[in-house]
């Protein structure tokens, strides 16, 4: 018997194309789980294939499913997109610029020092960001200088207030407001005195742009005195004006609170004749005013109010520098409600404060030689009492109402 098995000569030495393909077929591979790359799974994910796993040609080819796309992601940093010494890090169809501390932006194109949030953008008055760049603006009566940052005065020189106070501590004969100094004539030219007649004695409600609602409730006459300094004599600088209309804030309700929304506007019967002793104070944009209020080292308050709690009133205009008080400390110092329309200023232990009769007076802050209205004297618990502060109306909160009522456009 033969030990060899003869093949059937009718059998073909070739196999079908389908059978041959089965031999060369590459079964789908998986990395982290048996179902990851089975045919019924979703299309391959770039995040998984080339970030969570080691990225190579095979992994990328599974994602793009196209040879040209697979090799087409060249180094995105070749064009040196990062400016100002920024370091470029290549990514998949993208890049990241790592900027130095002086620059920011996608391509490190924005100089940090030239943003409104840093030193007011270098502007002498107001700063605005437009297309990623600082644009300086000015208050009314001023125009930008050649450097587009500083300002020039458009009005006569007498229409502007001196940068520094003119009365020193040594020159002061006696302390006023409470713990303040006597102002020199014309030093605070936006100060206005208002008499309430003899209904309940004389009530001084002072205004420069606005006045206090709680003063309006007791007024029996409508007379304003501008250019005033010494109440006991005529100095030739005073001008009297009558009020044609008074507009109390619509949310003021003395039955609920005598001091919330404590602000009113007065329309005069005739325009004010400006001089060295009679000048307006500036209103800045809302964000600018809020920042100035918080960051100014001190602000100036003034008036003819009482020299101490339940004491005599001042004969000559007094002034006092007061610091802004952080809001948590402000609210914790009083048993009364401090609303978001108010703020505190003053000293915890020093006997210096505004007092009765100063209500309606200006809280003014200086920025690079220009004075801006940041608050209005409103109320307090006693005067200069330890642990207590003066409370002021936050003027910037009322810009929409002021604009709507007066027609004066104030940037927000």
TrEMBL record:
Residues annotated as domain Gla: 33-70
GO molecular function, a single term: calcium ion binding
Keyword flag Isomerase: no
Keyword terms of this UniProt record: Blood coagulation, Calcium, Disulfide bond, EGF-like domain, Gamma-carboxyglutamic acid, Glycoprotein, Hemostasis, Hydrolase, Hydroxylation, Magnesium, Metal-binding, Phosphoprotein, Protease, Secreted, Serine protease, Zymogen
Reactions listed under catalytic activity: Selective cleavage of Arg-|-Ile bond in factor X to form factor Xa
Residues at the catalytic site: 204 (charge relay system), 262 (charge relay system), 359 (charge relay system)
Physiological role: Factor IX is a vitamin K-dependent plasma protein that participates in the intrinsic pathway of blood coagulation by converting factor X to its active form in the presence of Ca(2+) ions, phospholipids, and factor VIIIa.
Descriptive protein name: Coagulation factor IX
Species of the source: Myripristis murdjan (pinecone soldierfish)
Annotated gene: f9b
